[in-house]
Each structure stands twice: as structure tokens, then as C-alpha cells.
């Protein structure tokens, strides 16, 4: 039975591990309102000082901008570059300072005297352990150092720290200290503020046995601890950062050195996504220059991207980090469709590699197709619908040119031989065009018999050069080449695969006819599926991109104004322009973070791997939540993408999302989905058991009524999770209930969370795919407060309405 008491055994164990709600000494329990008010006033005075200092810094930055603009008028080339760098820096700084952080300053630690008395670059003492004698024999001590922790560091005019950046080494004890290992920390305080007003403080004592004094006064403890306050808040449509309450095991991941691969496993709600986002901010802080190469965060769905994308700006980081859904990793493609589990399974597997390689070569033989733009192969859906009537015009079967006064011709047999020779090996198809062109010219030269005219090698070379020139100058030759060896695009090849007969040919001995039919059919739809995107990316690698002439850089209007363009006809790019251009062109990153890594298919791992060939990696996931049917194949592809780099492994063990009552119910499905695996311990308990309802005659009516009930019970959001093919239906059921409630297909629920969740027919979700039980486990672990399960026709509910999958 689920534990219903507040702080039950699970919670008590979790609390010990995470320094939650550390014991408040009896002397402190009496902390009354006047103590609280006094403490708040003290923090307010500090915050006021910080804002005065920030205003001075903003003025400095504005001055820098103006000064830089003045220099722009009279610059030498050197001054110009300096101007750009300065404007860029000042702009970034201003932006960050002007950003009204809701709780700019959020933490404070009061510390004992340290072992050695050395200070670090942020002005704080570096020692982790207290000095001998810092605690007196009668268990009293003096506070030697107080540090305030915030979103960015602020120094006073004497370079003493007013606020320590949460990512700085000096801030680590704020997150790491626990009553078991307190280090120098006596009290950890979370400060809640809005705009410039301090609203409250929550303290945790790390050494409750100690009576500590600060400036001669006893150090009080106020409130019930910060984590519980944070977890109890209702959820909105976007994720909040957790800087004020990161826990020790999470902090170790966030601050792990970036070398090689950091691999993080943890059950639902253990903070993997939160940790991944905070880690991106930490890495940038720690080595901004190195990560100028960009950080990519790969997320499973656009919904999760939208849910999480506010976190980094709230941490003061934008720009350098790209959060992309798996379906948007290829530029210009936004996948909106889902394949059936059977088709997804084929498209995601490495078997597709062979098929794509065949298709890329095979598509060449189809020629440019009717109505395609010059040099490109295009197939429309109607063409694929009926291969007999609408097959694209095939490639030319004969080449005729006139050179050296003779008609020369290559017939289809000769052309086929040339194509086969040109295609030998594995080089990208589009890059073989020059080779094919040369082979054509060789064959025509041979036919011309001109080689026999001279034995002098120099003359022969000249003769050959003028022959080639004459042939290639002919429009006919160029037109032939474009039609016979068109430049292929990934989209065109994938579209060509929508023809069932063609695909069966290219997939012979790899896919059975039924599989080829299903895949071809899925490619006929309008739009791309998430799994198509990995195929497009693979095709890009197979086809290659021919080099194009570089576009001439535009002249900077400022240079025209100052006449500088005459001094520097080809101006070097400024740092900023370069950064912007690289960001636009970027296909590879310095660090890649993969969220929900358990879901990547082998083909998706290849796609993601190409974006981080020289990168360091953070990979977070939970095998028990995998919706991919063949975890072994995916693990092998993941290992290939990550190469031989050493792995550093971490495990997160505490579930911050689900109350223990919900976690326990989900645990039953986990036991079926992955026998023997251990669920994370839930950190809190609400006393609210999951509710079971049995669908009436009309499923939609029951869902709507239960969703409306949950909306009345929670202030925040309600997620209604249904099997994938009920998505549209579910949206209609909920119409008019407002935007606090959302209908989701089971696969769309990945990574998201709601105050309350309604899971509709566990059996339908479990039966959807071979990984259905794991997908159901995901659905059951989305709620932060309340869970209702509706049993449908297939669920075989008992007299209490509990579906068979959720019974003991
Ligand atoms: N230290 C913390 N302080 C406050 N809230 C936290 C903390 N750690 C995690 N949370 C909250 O717990 C919830 C779950 O976190 P998150 O979504 O990152 O977990 P996850 O491991 O990625 O879960 P899943 O595997 O189910 O997607 C979020 O609301 C997050 O803000």
C-alpha cells in the first residue's frame, strides 16, 4: 500500500540523502515572526546594495558602448576590430544586467573559519573543511564568512564578492553541504524575492548541534527548508530553474569536468533534464571560450523543447546553446508526423543504412523527373502513387556531341558502364559527378580517334584539352550531364523511396516486401515524420554537398560612411559577424547534451553523433522509460556515436516529482516492464492516493468529467495521456476546458510534468508497441500532485476500478 503519512519512510530516507529539512535546533524552532522579519530586513539591505552596484555597472557598460561607437568614426583597422569586440562585450554585459531576474539573489551560506585561510579568484576562502578549533569544545562557534549566491557574480568597488555566481567553485558548498558532510557550512539559506523585494527566507541547518554566532548574535534558523517549498509549487507550461535548491547528487553531475562522456542515469523525476540544462550553463561559465563552439541540447519532442527553453535564459545564458528536438535537427525540416510503431522500428534500425545507400545510387538512374528544377530530381506524391503512369522521365539513354568536326555518340550500354565505374567505391554520390564527367570525356575522346593524330605527348595533351573544351562548351553536353547525373537532394531520394516497387528493389534482402510496402506508404504522406529526419540526415552524408562558390561578403555600411572600405577593400569579418555566421552554419558543436537518451534509435544516434564528432558529451536517460523496442541495438549505435571516449557514470536516485503514493503505483508497471530494476525514492508524500475510474458507455464523457474534476483540485496544469491514435479524439473531448488542460499522445508525454495527470486506458497504451509497458511507466510518472487512471474496455478493472496492469 502506498505510504500516506507526511515524511514516510521513503521520504525520511530521501531527506537524509539530500539534506532536506535538516533538523532545526530547539532554540531555533521558536523563531518567531519578529526574527523572520529582522532576517528579511537584513537580506533586503544586502539586496539593495547589490542593485546599487549593478546600476553602477550598467552605467559603465553604457559608457563603454558610447565610447566604442565614437571610436568607430575615426578608426584604424586595429581600432575597428577593438571597437567591435568592445561593443559586443558591453552589449552582452548590458543584456544580462538589464534582464530583470525574478530572484536574482537566491542563496546564502554562513561558514566556519577554513583550514588554510587562502582566497580564490572570486574573493571567497577556498578551504572546504573547517580549521581546527573553529568549533569550540562547548559546541559553539563563530561565523567567519558569509557568502550570498546569485545568478551572476557581483563584486563591490573593492573587488570583494557581494554575490557569488552559483556556478563558481565558492558556491559549491551551498549545494553540496549535508548534515552528514557539512564541511564549513553552518547554515544554508534560500532567499525568495520578487524584483527588488525580499519576500522570505528558508533556512537549513547543516550543524544543528552547534550554537553559532555572527557578529556576537546567535545565528537563527527560519522556515522549513527550501526544497519542499519549491516542490510544492504548482506547475505552469514552462519549467523553472532549480538553482536555489540543487541537491548534492545533482550538483556533482552539473559540475563534473567536461572531458569525454558524462553519462547520467536516473528514474523519472530525478532531475535529469533540470541537471542537463544547469550543466550547460555551468560549462559556459567555466570555459566560455571553449564553448564558443556551441552547446547542443537534443530533446525528444518539440513539446519538451518548449517546456524547457526558458530555463537557460533564466540562468543568464542564451545564444551559445541550441535546444533542438530530434525532429528539427536538420535545417529547414520540422517533423510533425509520427510513424506507426512498426514503421518507426524499421526506419530507426541500422537496416536502413543499406537501403539508403542503394536508394541514393538508384535515384541517379531515375533522371531529373518531370517538372523538377534544373539539376534536381523531384518526385511528387502523385508520381509515387502510380508508378506506371507518373514515373518521372528517365535519364537520357544516349549522348550525342559534335567535336573536331565529327559526330560522336555514346549509347545506353556505354553510358551504363561509365556510370558503374564512376559509382565504384563509397564516395558521396554528388561528389562523383566530376569523375563521371571525366569518364564521359575519356570515352568520347576514344571514339573521336584523335589520339592517333600525334605521338608527341605535349601536343597530345594540348589536343585533348581543346577537345574537352569544345565538348563541354556545348549546351547539349551540359544539359545531358544535368539529366544523366543530377545533383541529388536527400528529400528527393526519400521521396523516390515512396514508390513501393522501387523501394522493394532497393531494399531487397534487407526489408521483406510487407515492410517495404509499409515504409513506402508512410513516405507518401505530406510532411516528414520524426524518424524521417534521421534518414534525411543520413542521406545528406551519403550524397555529400558539392562545393559552391562563396558568396561575396557585403560591405559594412559603417565602413562606407567612414570611407574605410577604400583602405580595406576586403574587410576581415568582425568577431561578432563571425560568431553569427558560424552559429548559422553550425553543424557541429563543442558539447552535446542528449536528454531522454534511452529513446534515440540507432539511426538517430548516427545523426546526433555527426553533430559532435569532436565534442564532449553529457548523456542523460533512463532505460526503464525507453520507447525503443530494441535497446541493445540502440546501445551499440550510441557507443559508436560516442566513440572510444572514456565514460564517467553518475546515478540520480531521488524522485522530486512524484509523491510516494504515485511513485508506488508506477513501480508496479516498472516491475512488469523491467523486472528487477529499482525505482528512485520519492522525496515527499501527499497522502493523496491515485484515483481509479471506470469509463462509462462513452469514454470521452468520463475523460472530460475526470479532467474537469482535476482542474478544480489543482491550481496548475492537468495532462491527459492517451494512446497515440486517440490524440485527436482526446483534444475534442477536452475542448472548452481551458488552457490549463492538455491532451497528449503517450509518446508526447516524454519529459513533461503536470500538477495532475489523467492516464486513459493503461492497456491501450501498453498494447501500442513492443515497448508499451515502458511508455505506460512514463505516463504514470508525470504528476506532481494527483493521478487519476481511467480503465477502458481492455483494462479488465476489478471492483475498485483498478486495471489489471496496476493490480498487485
Ligand atoms: N533540486 C531540485 N529542486 C527543486 N526541484 C527539483 C530539483 N530537482 C528536480 N526538481 C524538479 O523535479 C521535477 C523533475 O525534474 P526533471 O524533469 O528534470 O526530471 P527527469 O529526471 O528529467 O524526469 P523524466 O525522466 O521523468 O523526464 C521538475 O519539476 C524539477 O524542477
TrEMBL record:
Nucleotide-binding found in the keyword field: yes
Renumbered residue ranges of the record's region Disordered: 1-40
InterPro entries the record matches: DNA_helicase_UvrD/REP (IPR000212), P-loop_NTPase (IPR027417), UvrD-like_ATP-bd (IPR014016)
Pfam families xrefs: UvrD-helicase
Every UvrD-like helicase ATP-binding domain range: 245-659
Chain positions recorded as ATP binding sites: 266-273
Keywords from the UniProt entry: ATP-binding, Helicase, Hydrolase, Nucleotide-binding
Top-level taxon in the UniProt lineage: Bacteria
PROSITE patterns, A to Z: UVRD_HELICASE_ATP_BIND
Name assigned to this protein: UvrD-helicase domain-containing protein
Record organism: Streptomyces thermoviolaceus subsp. thermoviolaceus
Amino acid at each position: 500500500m502506498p505510504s500516506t503519512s507526511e515524511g514516510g519512510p521513503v521520504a525520511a530516507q530521501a531527506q537524509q540523502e539530500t539534506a532536506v529539512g535538516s533538523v532545526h535546533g530547539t532554540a531555533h524552532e521558536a523563531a518567531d515572526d519578529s526574527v523572520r522579519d529582522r532576517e528579511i530586513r537584513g537580506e533586503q539591505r544586502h539586496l539593495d546594495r547589490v542593485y546599487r552596484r549593478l546600476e553602477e555597472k550598467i552605467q559603465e557598460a553604457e559608457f563603454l558602448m558610447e565610447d566604442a561607437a565614437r571610436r568607430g568614426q575615426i578608426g584604424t583597422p586595429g581600432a575597428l576590430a577593438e571597437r567591435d569586440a568592445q561593443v559586443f562585450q558591453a552589449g552582452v554585459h548590458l543584456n544580462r544586467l538589464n534582464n530583470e531576474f525574478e530572484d536574482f539573489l537566491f542563496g546564502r551560506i554562513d561558514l566556519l573559519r577554513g583550514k588554510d585561510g587562502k582566497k580564490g579568484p572570486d574573493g571567497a576562502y577556498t578551504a572546504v573543511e573547517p580549521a581546527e578549533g573553529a568549533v569550540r569544545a562547548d559546541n559553539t562557534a563563530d561565523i567567519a564568512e558569509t557568502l550570498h549566491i546569485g545568478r551572476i557574480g557581483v563584486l563591490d568597488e573593492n573587488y570583494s564578492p557581494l554575490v557569488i555566481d552559483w556556478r563558481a567553485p565558492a558556491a559549491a558548498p551551498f549545494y553540496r553541504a549535508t548534515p552528514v558532510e557539512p564541511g564549513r557550512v553552518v547554515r544554508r539559506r534560500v532567499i525568495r524575492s520578487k524584483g527588488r523585494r525580499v519576500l522570505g527566507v528558508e533556512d537549513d541547518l547543516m550543524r544543528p548541534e552547534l550554537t553559532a554566532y555572527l557578529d556576537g548574535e546567535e545565528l537563527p534558523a527560519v522556515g522549513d527548508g527550501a526544497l519542499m517549498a519549491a516542490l510544492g509549487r504548482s506547475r505552469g507550461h514552462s519549467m523553472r530553474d532549480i538553482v536555489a535548491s540543487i541537491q548534492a547528487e545533482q550538483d556533482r553531475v552539473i559540475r563534473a569536468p567536461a572531458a569525454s562522456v558524462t553519462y547520467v542515469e536516473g528514474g523519472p523525476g530525478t532531475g535529469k533534464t533540470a541537471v542537463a540544462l544547469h550543466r550547460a550553463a555551468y560549462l559556459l561559465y567555466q570555459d566560455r571560450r571553449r564553448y564558443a563552439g556551441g552547446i547542443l541540447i537534443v530533446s525528444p519532442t518539440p513539446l519538451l523543447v518548449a517546456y524547457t527553453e526558458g530555463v537557460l535564459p533564466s540562468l543568464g545564458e542564451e545564444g551559445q546553446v541550441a535546444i533542438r528536438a530530434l525532429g528539427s535537427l536538420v535545417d529547414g525540416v520540422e517533423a510533425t508526423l509520427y510513424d506507426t510503431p512498426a514503421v518507426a522500428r524499421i526506419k530507426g534500425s541500422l537496416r536502413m543504412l543499406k537501403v539508403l545507400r542503394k536508394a541514393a545510387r538508384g535515384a541517379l538512374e531515375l533522371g531529373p523527373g518531370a517538372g523538377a528544377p534544373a539539376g534536381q530530381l523531384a518526385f511528387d506524391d502523385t508520381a509515387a502513387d502510380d508508378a506506371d503512369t507518373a514515373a518521372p522521365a528517365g535519364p537520357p539513354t544516349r549522348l550525342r556531341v559534335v567535336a573536331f568536326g565529327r559526330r560522336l555518340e555514346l549509347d545506353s550500354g556505354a553510358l551504363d558502364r561509365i556510370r558503374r565505374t564512376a559509382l565504384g567505391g563509397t564516395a558521396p554520390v554528388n561528389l562523383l559527378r566530376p569523375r563521371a564527367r571525366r569518364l564521359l570525356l575519356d570515352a568520347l575522346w576514344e571514339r573521336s580517334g584523335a589520339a592517333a593524330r600525334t605521338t608527341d605527348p605535349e601536343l597530345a595533351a594540348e589536343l585533348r584539352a581543346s577537345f574537352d573544351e569544345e565538348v563541354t562548351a556545348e549546351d547539349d553536353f551540359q544539359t545531358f550531364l544535368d539529366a544523366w547525373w543530377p545533383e541529388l537532394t536527400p528529400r528527393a531520394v526519400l521521396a523516390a523511396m515512396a514508390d513501393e516497387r522501387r523501394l522493394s528493389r532497393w531494399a531487397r534482402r534487407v526489408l521483406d516486401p510487407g515492410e517495404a510496402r509499409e515504409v513506402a506508404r508512410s513516405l507518401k504522406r505530406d510532411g516528414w515524420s520524426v524518424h524521417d529526419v534521421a534518414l534525411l540526415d543520413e542521406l545528406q552524408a551519403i550524397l555529400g554537398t558539392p562545393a559552391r562558390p562563396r558568396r561575396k561578403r557585403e560591405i559594412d555600411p559603417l565602413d562606407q560612411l567612414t570611407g574605410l572600405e577604400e583602405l580595406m577593400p576586403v574587410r576581415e569579418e568582425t568577431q561578432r559577424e563571425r560568431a553569427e555566421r558560424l552559429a548559422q552554419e553550425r553543424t557541429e558543436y563543442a558539447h552535446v547534451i542528449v536528454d531522454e537518451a534511452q529513446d534515440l534509435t540507432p539511426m538517430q544516434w548516427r545523426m546526433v553523433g555527426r553533430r559532435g564528432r569532436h565534442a564532449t558529451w553529457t548523456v542523460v536517460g533512463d532505460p526503464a522509460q525507453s520507447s525503443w523496442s530494441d535497446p541493445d541495438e540502440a546501445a551499440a549505435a550510441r557507443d559508436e556515436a560516442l566513440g572510444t571516449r572514456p565514460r564517467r557514470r553518475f546515478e540520480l536516485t531521488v524522485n522530486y516529482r512524484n509523491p510516494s503514493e504515485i511513485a508506488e503505483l508506477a513501480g508496479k508497471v516498472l516491475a512488469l516492464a523491467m523486472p528487477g530494476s529499482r525505482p528512485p525514492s520519492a522525496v515527499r508524500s501527499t497522502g493523496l492516493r491515485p484515483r481509479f475510474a471506470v469509463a462509462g458507455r462513452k469514454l470521452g464523457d468520463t475523460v472530460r468529467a475526470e479532467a474537469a474534476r482535476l482542474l478544480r483540485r489543482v491550481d496548475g496544469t492537468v495532462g491527459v495521456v492517451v494512446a497515440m491514435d486517440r490524440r485527436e479524439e482526446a483534444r475534442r473531448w477536452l475542448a472548452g476546458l481551458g488552457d490549463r488542460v492538455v491532451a497528449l499522445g503517450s509518446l508526447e508525454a516524454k519529459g513533461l510534468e503536470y500538477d495532475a495527470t489523467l492516464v486513459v486506458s493503461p492497456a491501450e497504451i501498453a498494447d501500442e508497441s513492443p515497448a508499451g509497458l515502458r511508455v505506460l511507466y512514463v505516463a504514470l510518472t508525470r504528476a506532481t500532485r494527483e493521478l487519476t487512471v481511467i480503465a477502458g474496455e481492455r483494462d479488465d478493472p476489478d471492483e475498485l476500478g483498478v486495471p489489471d496492469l496496476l493490480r498487485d
